[in-house]
Write a structure and sequence with these properties.
With 589 residues, the chain is an alpha/beta fold. It has 3 domains: 2-152, 2-Layer Sandwich (Beta-Lactamase); 167-315, Reverse transcriptase/Diguanylate cyclase domain (Alpha-Beta Plaits), CATH 3.30.70; 327-578, TIM Barrel, CATH 3.20.20. The protein has 22 helices and 21 strands. Helix 2 runs antiparallel to helix 5 (132-155), helix 8 crosses helix 9 (249-268) and helix 15 runs parallel beside helix 16. The protein is elongated. It starts with a helix and ends with a helix.
């Protein structure tokens, strides 16, 4: 037996240098009593020491050199030494030098045949007449120690409900496989039995037993289909199997077919919830991927599978990179919102087409991530909207914009500032009252604020959203429907919305120049919206031609790079001072 393998087996058990434990101490106490020995120990043979997992009457460890326990490990058999001082193998060793005379030890041997150390009893007096029964009793005690070690070891490796090996065992097995078959290809298949949302619902209505039954039946089907591969339980309703490699596209199809079959079977057995199974597949080479990383990939693939038609998906690094970035951005945004001054507002002026003067400015968020640099709001705002961050983000925008508005007012500027709000904000019961309170706090008139929202806000909680908008309007705050034309825009419902302005999305405005179809579309939007009493603002105006066209079609105001890019608050003052209304092109020429 190679010593390195033995040491690895010992260390894998995670016993060395752990705290004392009653279930082991019970055995050493019994040994002392049984043998009337002042000293007893469960002694593990480490590289250079004997370390005692449990001990009576001695210190925590002794050197391995000339230790009788080390000899037990070497010979893997019972050793009885009547007098250590009279045995050349041990005289001069730590024990003999410290007054120990008698030693008896039985090997602690694993199922795999590794001897970890010795179950031993010691005495300060020599014992010249050791009996055969003593050896047998010592062996029994050693067996009890091993049973306890195995029990403790398996506890962390077996799922108590399903009896299947768990995530720890999975990691260990993958590592073992890598030693035997380095660099061979394998496939990890993760079965996520139930959609987490549906599981939560079922638990709520039916209680946790519904999951037990589902898992029991699903496992039966899975085991049949996957044997001889082992199944591991890696989550409440998630199981993984490692299959042989070389799964090309046709095998992928085979897996899908298997899965479909499984679903049909489940449906026939009345397991409707099994319809929610998602299968994630991750191909890997043994020893080239950390088991935790492998499991993460399989989970990621299973999550993607939830969105796919077949319910089966393969791990895709590109998709994964997107998720990783999104995850990082959300974490970074949470941090940014605690006030590290990464988030700022820039202001883009709008110009009234009748007077040619600036009549307001839209506040737009800017985020400089400490590592990733500038992040576009078009990327991070939609992410924030999926989390609880939508609320503090908009609160920050409203607060900053109103503070700026108050500052402009002190400088004699009567600008109306627009802020963009998300659907999630308008679905907050207290959103409107919060905005009204912020106006008061900053001493800003309601007529100096405009709230922009998109039609998407009206899809889910329509009643609640309309209530908030109604409150804002009643308080005298202007409301604008943003990105008009990109959603489900229909004039028939416009009247129900408490808004006074529509902003035509830049995608239409930018096409005006080259498409007569878009020209007539925009003309009609402006005409109809005006007839319904809306102000119409066009965003994304980049050229003089488009500007003139919009002025002719009676659009109310424009915003875009032709007028100005979004500017830091301080620069906006300078811009305003320099701004010269654009005359009509014919007179300018
Ligand atoms: P949006 O509300 O439609 O804002 C207009 C976007 O068009 C802004 O992009 C603006 O910089 C850009 N833009 C303005 N004039 C022109 C032009 O002439 N040509 C072109 N090509 N683009 C122009 P930005 O600042 O990157 O914002 C993108 C989107 O992010 C915004 O679209 C808005 O939906 C969202 N957003 C920005 N700030 C906030 C915020 O504070 N809260 C929320 N909820 N959303 C925000
Ligand atoms: Ca906007
Ligand atoms: Ca837009």
């Amino acid at each position: 037996m190679v010593e390195a393998d033995r040491l690895r087996a010992l260390r894998d058990l995670n016993l060395l240098d752990t705290s004392p434990c009653e279930s082991f101490d019970r055995i050493t106490r019994m040994a002392s009593l049984l043998f009337s020995a002042p000293i007893s120990a469960i002694s593990l043979t480490d590289e250079n020491r004997q370390w005692f997992k449990s001990r009576v009457g001695c210190g925590p460890e002794i050197p391995r050199y000339k230790a009788p326990c080390a000899e037990v490990t070497r010979i893997a058999d019972v050793l009885v030494v009547p007098d250590l001082t009279k045995d050349c193998r041990f005289e001069g060793g730590y024990l003999a030098d410290n007054g120990i005379r008698f030693y008896a030890g039985a090997p602690l041997t694993t199922r795999d045949g590794f001897t970890l150390g010795s179950m031993c009893v010691l005495d300060t007096k020599p014992r010249m007449s050791a009996k055969v029964e003593d050896a047998a009793a010592l062996k029994d005690l050693a067996a009890m120690v091993m049973a306890q070690i195995e029990l403790q070891h398996s506890l962390g490796r077996i799922d108590p409900a399903s009896g299947l090996p768990n995530r720890n065992q999975f990691a260990e097995d993958v590592e073992d496989m890598a030693l035997d078959y380095p660099h061979e290809e394998r496939v990890a298949v993760l079965f996520d039995l139930v959609d987490p949302a549906r599981l939560a619902q079922a638990m709520r209505v039916l209680g946790p037993r519904c999951l037990d039954e589902l898992i029991h039946n699903a496992l039966k089907a899975l085991k049949q289909r996957l044997s001889p591969a082992a199944l591991y339980q890696v989550g409440a309703s998630q199981f993984v199997a490692i299959l042989a490699g070389h799964h090309d596209e046709s095998d992928h199809g085979l897996l899908v077919a298997q899965f479909e079959h499984l679903k049909r079977e489940a449906a026939a057995a009345g397991l409707a919830a099994m319809a929610g199974v998602a299968i994630g597949i991750a191909t890997f080479r043994l020893g080239e991927m950390d088991p935790a990383e492998l499991l993460r990939s399989a989970h990621a693939a299973a999550q993607d599978a939830r969105q796919s038609e077949t319910g089966v998906s393969r791990y895709c690094p590109a998709t994964n990179a997107v998720h990783e970035r999104n995850f990082e951005l959300i974490a970074g945004l949470r941090e940014a919102l605690t006030g590290a001054e990464q988030l700022t507002l820039v202001y883009q002026p709008t110009v009234n087409l009748r007077s040619g003067e600036c009549d307001g400015a839209e506040a737009l968020l800017r985020w400089r991530h400490p590592v990733l640099g500038d992040i576009s709001p078009a990327e991070f705002v939609p992410l924030a909207e999926q989390t609880e961050l939508a609320k503090p983000l908009t609160a920050l925008v409203v607060d900053t914009a109103l503070k700026q508005s108050a500052a402009w007012h002190r400088e004699g500027l009567q600008l109306r500032v627009s802020v963009n709000v998300s659907a999630a904000n308008l679905e907050e019961e207290t959103f409107a009252s919060g905005v009204i309170a912020a106006l008061r706090r900053h001493g800003v008139l309601p007529s100096r604020l405009k709230v922009e929202f998109t039609e998407s806000a009206l899809i889910t909680q329509r009643a609640l959203v309309l209530k908030n908008l109604g409150k804002l309007r009643d308080a005298g705050i202007s409301c604008a429907i943003d990105d008009f034309g990109t959603g489900y825009s229909s004039f028939s419902y416009l009247q129900d919305i408490p808004a006074d302005t529509i902003k035509i999305d830049k995608s239409f405005i930018q096409r005006i120049e080259h498409s007569s179809r878009d020209r007539s579309l925009v003309t009609n939007i402006i005409k109809m919206a005006s007839e319904l009493g809306f102000r119409v603002v066009a965003e994304g105006v980049e050229t003089r031609k488009v500007y003139d066209f919009l002025r002719e079609t009676q659009c109310s105001a424009v915003q875009g790079y032709l007028i100005s890019r979004p500017l830091p608050a301080d620069d906006l003052m300078g811009w305003l001072a320099a701004w010269q209304p654009l005359g009509s092109q014919t007179s300018a020429a």
